[in-house]
Amino acid sequence: MRTSAAQTVRDLPVLGVAVVWGSSFLAVKNVATPDSVVAMLVLRFGLVLPLLALFTWRALRRLTIREWLGGAALGLVLGAIFLLETYGAVHTSATNAGLIISLTMVFTPLAESALSRTALPRVFVAAAGLSVLGVALLTGGGGFRVPALGDLLVLGAAVVRTVNVLTVSRLRLVKSTDSSALTWIQLATATLVFAVVAPFVGPSPVSLAASYGAADWALLLHLSLLCTLFAFLVQTWAVRATSPSRVSLLLGTEPLWAAVFGITLAGDHLGPLALSGALLVLVGTEWGRRSAAPAPEPTPAPVPVTPGQREPVLDRR
């Protein structure tokens, strides 16, 4: 009984990460416009980088030049993910964004299967098909028509995220690099690129910060402190305190929370067919994630999750 209660207590922070990640799409829609996306990303990660450095500076000092360069290269990919995902969230509903990005859970095993030339279980293929059908219904507004621009951008983010997962899992240099230090370098590289580009595509980060009111700053701090820093710290702790499969199960509820926030707070309206599509995405991605997951290891590796990656970074990474 005590063991069960202790496990529940350990699960709550991880579930909290899934909840705040699910809320991030709605927060982005309220704190950014198509013109201010890049500047907002500079502020979001510029706020968290000094705090994250407090936990990673020892590891950063031990890195070699090659590891710094490798992390910077991956930071460019991570920056592309954030750009596609954030622009997509601005141009579509919070519900759609949260559900579409969850397709990474089925894209990654499909891509891994293609590269390794190994067949996936039929049940996973069925789950993947269910998810794709769900997205078609969801983004078609209840009919089979061309998805909106935002939907396509978020779908692109899911594809690039899959590429990033596969790249990280295959780079020997990355496998031997401290993951917390790698996270910092990736975020710092993406932020630097955003800062250089921002004045050419919209307001500068400084002018955007000056224009923000109290509500805007509250949302920005939510994205920085909860969706990034809190998520990083909790997952760093969670892979040591509980099993990787349990962490994955809890984080997999993120699209559900995105739909909850989108429908209840943003007023996203889904017709009968679109609602059916949303349910198919939730069922398909969860079914696929469970059927493709490897058997849990006796001793989980203490490796944290990269903020923005939104799936557990375990030994296979």
Describe the structure.
It is a single chain. The chain has 317 residues and is mainly alpha-helical. Helix content is 77%, strand content 0%. It is built from 14 helices and no strands. It has helices at residues 2-31, 37-61, 65-91, 94-101, 104-116, 122-139, 149-170, 172-175, 179-201, 205-211, 214-241, 244-251, 254-264, 272-292. α1 runs antiparallel to α11 and α3 packs across α4. The longest helix has 30 residues, at 2-31.
Task: Write a compact overview of the structure shown.
The protein has 317 residues and is mainly alpha-helical. The protein has 14 helices and no strands. The protein is globular and about 50 Å long.
Average pLDDT taken over every residue: 83
Quickly count the helices: 14
- Count all strands and give the number: 0
Helix content: over 70%
Give the uncertain stretches in residue-range form.
295-317
Q: Helix- and strand-based class?
A: mainly alpha
Main beta-sheet annotation: none
What is the element layout, followed by pairings?
Layout: H1 2-31, H2 37-61, H3 65-91, H4 94-101, H5 104-116, H6 122-139, H7 149-170, H8 172-175, H9 179-201, H10 205-211, H11 214-241, H12 244-251, H13 254-264, H14 272-292
Helix pairs in contact: 1-3, 1-4, 1-11, 1-12, 1-13, 2-9, 2-10, 2-11, 3-4, 3-7, 3-9, 4-7, 4-13, 5-7, 6-14
What labels would you give this structure?
single chain, about 325 residues, mainly alpha, about 75% helix
